[in-house]
Amino acid sequence: MCAQPASPEASSEGRVVLDATDITRALTRIAHEILERNKGARDLVLLGIPKRGVPLARRIAERISAVEGYAVPVGSLDVTMYRDDLRLRPARTLLPTEIPGHSIDGHTVVLVDDVLFSGRTIRAALDALNDLGRPRAVQLAVLVDRGHRELPIRADFVGKNLPTSLVERVSVRLTGVDDVDAVTIEDAPGGTA
What stretches of 2-132 adopt beta strand conformation (E)? Predict the structure, then answer.
């Protein structure tokens, strides 16, 4: 097998597939799609899944607010204790769940996450929502959908569909959490393409 020459977008941290401009465009499109599907912003609540889903939810809410002139409530939903792989993964610090307003009852909740992969995180989020109340509807917005679903879960709003192999890793970095806005693909340790 021949080695591929390094692309100009390759770096020591992986191949950049979305840069800051691409991420801005994708989030603006997602915000408009949310508004179109829901016929406005009333009764919407955006809940980001920590760690990077929370800043993504805030950015989407800012774009919705700029269009609608209405501040969409944004919160966070930690799903750690609802995961089905707790015994398989290292212990993780619990992050706060913050529900804006009084409750999610009767609202349309848009879950926001950075990468949709197996669907297990979203399944955990749905279980967590059941303990918090009864939303009118639940929708899902993700920056990247990389496929490889293990559960019948599909995103309603996707920034970029990014077909990957199982030996690749998708890494999302966001300013405010990381040093830059970028989505990269890298080979997983020990993986071969």
Answer: 10-11, 14-18, 44-48, 74-76, 108-116
